[in-house]
Amino acid sequence: QVQLVESGGGLVQAGESLRLTCAASGRIFDVGAMGWFRQAPGKEREFVAAIVWSNSRTYYTDSVKGRFTISRDNAKNTGSLQMSNLKPEDTAVYYCAARGGSVFSYSLLSHPGGYDYWGQGTQVAVSS
């Protein structure tokens, strides 16, 4: 089992930045990739970004490219999502997720069903 705990959410104004962190514990060696998803009220959970643990290859949904940066720190067993130039439409609960494996693609990592472990979520609210 892998346990994930997100932190760093909050309320900001449009144009500001936030950094989310996901701390992983347990069977860390099972983690092959980590992803970030978000879910706004009344909407389905959507993919934001993912990173391959071994080589740091990254994937992003189009709406956050150039604004969000995903990274990981293997030594600290953490993943991060640096969010800049935030917009009101970025308001959502943000979840980190992890999965095992060694071969990945955008289609695999962008689907919520592709992940085995989930955090509890952290709220991000962006005011206009």
Task: List key phrases describing it.
128 residues; seven-stranded mixed beta sheet; four-stranded antiparallel beta sheet; 1 helix
Q: Can you walk through the features of this model?
A:
The strands form two sheets. Strands 2, 4, 5, 6, 9, 10 and 11 form a seven-stranded mixed β-sheet that branches. The chain has a four-stranded antiparallel β-sheet with strand order 1-3-8-7, with no helix packed on it. It has 128 residues and is mainly beta. A hairpin with a 5-residue loop joins strand 5 and strand 6. Helices cover 3% and strands 50% of the residues.
Percent in helix: under 10%
Structural class determined from secondary elements: mainly beta
* Gyration radius, rounded: 14 Å
Mean pLDDT: 96
**Which sequence of SSEs, written as H and E, runs from N to C?**
EEEEEEEEEHEE
Percentage of residues in strands: over 45%
Task: Characterize the overall form.
Answer: globular
Number of strands: 11
Largest β-sheet summary: 7 strands, mixed
What is the rounded distance between the termini? 40 Å
